[in-house]
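Researcher: Quick one. two chains, 574 residues in total.
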Amino acid sequence: MTENKEVPARTTGEEGKKSLNFIESIIEEDLKNNKNNGVVLTRFPPEPNGYLHIGHAKSICLNFGLAQRYNGKTNLRFDDTNPEKEEVEYVDSIMEDVRWLGFQWEGEPRYASDYFQQLYDWAVNIIKNGYAYVDDQPAELISQQRGTPTQAGIESPYRNRSVEENLDLFIRMKNGEFKEGEKVLRAKIGMTSPNMHMRDPIMYRILKREHHRTGNNWCIYPMYDFAHGQSDYIEGITHSVCTLEFEVHRPLYEWYLENVYTEGDIKPRQIEFARLNLSYTIMSKRKLLELVQKNIVNGWDDPRMPTISGLRRRGFTSASIRKFADTIGVAKRDNVIDVAVLEHSLREDLNQTAARVMAVLNPLKIVITNYPEDKDEWVKIENNPEDETMGTREMPFSREIYIEQDDFMEDAPKKFFRLSPGNEVRLKAAYIIKCEEVIKNTDGNITELRCTYDPDSRSGSGTEASQRKVKGTLHWVSAKHAIDVEVRLYDRLFNDEAPDGHKEKDYKEFINPESLKILKNCKVEPSLKDAQAESKYQFQRLGYFCVDKKDSKPGNLVFNRTVPLKDSWGKMNK
RNA sequence: UGUCCGAUGGUGUAAUUGGCAACACGUCUGAUUUUGGUUCAGAAGAGUCCAGGUUCGAGCCCUGGUCGGACAGCCA
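Model:
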C-alpha cells in the first residue's frame, strides 16, 4: 500500500495561513514555553475488547498526526486492566489496523498490564501515606453511599482503618485470600465532592480471571482511572488525548498523578476532544459486538461494518481514511459527520488510483447483425483517464456483447441518453450501434436486442464516423470472452440517520434489509481473470469495486462494491 | 437543586494581540467530456443561541439567561 505520511496542511483564507485545532494550539504553546523540553509523546490506548472502528481511526490519525507534526513519537498501549472482556484476537486486529492505516508506533507495543507491579507498589505507598483504604462492603452498598450528582455521598464505615490494617488487607487481597467482590481498595479523597468520580473512587477490585498476558499472576486489577494516568506517567506521555466523556475524570487523573509524581518527571496532561459520530451508522463497540454475535453481519470485518477491518474489506484505502480524518477536524462540540464526507474522500482517492475496467452487472445480450460471425477484434482502451502512466490495454470485441439492462429502455423519456429502439449509442472504445429490434420471450420480457453497427465508427480510427457525437456512451463486454463473477452490492447498514438516537426504538429496527444484494452471473472483461485479492477497480460507469479477500478464488471471483459512482441521472429520476 | 463541557449556513471545521464571517461536504445552475464519473465556471444558503454591557468597532471580552451533552460500573 501507499506510504503516505504527509498530512496536508490545513489552510484558511487566501494567504494560506495554517489554522490549528485546539490541541495543536496547546502543544504549540507548550513548545513555546519549552515545557517537557520540547518533547511531544502521544499515545493511542485502546482496550482490546473489540475491533477498531472509524471513530478510533480519528483518534489514531489525531495522536499519530500530532506526533508527526511536532517531531514527536506515539506509543501504542493496550489498556488491558479488565480480563473479563479482553482477548488476544483483539490485540492482533488492533495492531494490524493501526499499521494498515499507515502508522508506526514507537518501539514495542505497551500494555497497562506490564505496569501491574509498579501500580501495585504505588498503591501500597498511597496506603502508607494514608490516602487509600480497604472497603469490605458489597458493590451495591458502596454504590448507594456514593450519593447522586446532586447529593453528597456518605463515608464508608471502613474508611478510617489504620494504615497497618489497610496494608495487611491489601496484601492479602493480592494474595488471593478473599473472594471476588469481597473487598476493594479505595482512594481516600472525600465523599462530598460535586464530581462523582472524586468520591473515594475504587482503585483495585478482585477478579479471579485469567488475564491474556499476565495469566494468573494477579487476582487484583487496577481500575481505569488508577491505571491510565499512571501508565501515561510511566511512559512519559506529554499529551494524553482522549474523548470528552473522560473530562470529568480529569481531576482524578491529576489527583493520582500528584500521589505518585516525582519532581522533574514529565507530567502528562489530559486533553479531551469530541468523538466521531457518523450518520447512518453506529459507533458503539457494544452494539457492534451484538451485530457480530447475533450474526446480523458476517463478522467484525463484514464490509457493511464501520470497523477499520470492515472498511478495508469493503475496499476503502487507508489514504482516504486519513484524508477524511483531516477533513473533519477536531473540536470539543458534539458532532455528526455526514457519511457523504467519508465517501467523498474515498472517491477522490480511488478516482486517481483505480484502474478502469468493463463489467456488466445485469447483462442484456446484444447481437450485432451486420458484424461477421467469426470475427474477433481487439480494441485499445486507457486504464485510467486521470493518470496516463497507467497505460492502456486491449479488449476483445465480437458479434455478441452484453450491456447493462438499465442502459436500454423500450419507451425512453426524452432525457434518456442510452439505447432505445431506433437510436444510436457509442460502445465505449468500440463502435456506434443502433438498436433495430427488441426480442421478447412469451412473458413479454426483453431477452435480447438486435443491433447494427457502423463499421467506420471505431474509436480512435480517426474517420469522420469515429468522431460523430452520439448522446450516450455505454460500457459493454464481449459475450464469448466474458468471465462470470459474483458481485456483492453493499449499501448502508441502517436506513436511519441516527440509528441509536431514538429513545423508544432499538437501533436494530433500522437495519437496512437491502444492505447486501448478491448478483451471480455478472460479466466482466477477460483481463480480470487473474485479479488479485483486495485489488481495486472502477467498473466503468458503475462504481468502485474490489476483489473480496476472503471469498474470492481464482476461477470464482467475488467483487465487493466499495461505493457507486455519483449518479446525476439516478438522482434526477428520484 | 450539583459539577464539568459545549453552542458559527443543511453538515463539519476556520476566523491566533477585537477589524466588514472563510473553507470543505452537500444542494442548485451552466460548460467540457467516448464514464450522466472527473474537471471547470458560477449560485443559493449563516450575520455567529438569547438579552444586556464594554468599545469607534464584538463570533471573539464582561454579566445574566436559554438550550444541548457528559458524570451516580468493583467497564474503559
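The first strand of chain A starts at residue 11 and ends at 12.
Researcher: Thanks, that's what I needed.
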